[in-house]
Amino acid sequence: IEEEFKKLNVEEEDDEEEDEEEVVVTETTQNPGGKDSGEVPATSTITISNKAMMEAFIAKLSTISNRDFVNDAAQEFCLKLNTKSNRKKLVRALYGVSRNRLDLLPFHARLVRTLSPILPDIPLDLFTLLKKEFIYHLRKKDQNNLETKVKNIRFIGELTKFETCEKVEALWCLRVLLEQFTHHNIEIACNLVECCGRYLFRSPDTHLKTNHLLDQMMRKKVVHNLDSRQITMVENAYYYCNPPDRVAYVKKQRPPMHEYVRKLLIKDLNKNNIEKILRQFRKLPWEDETISMYAVKCLCRVWNVKFNNIYCVASLLAGLAQFQVIN
Question: Which of 152, 208, 233, 280 has the most Cβ atoms closer than 10 angstroms to its Cβ?
Answer without folding.
Answer: 152
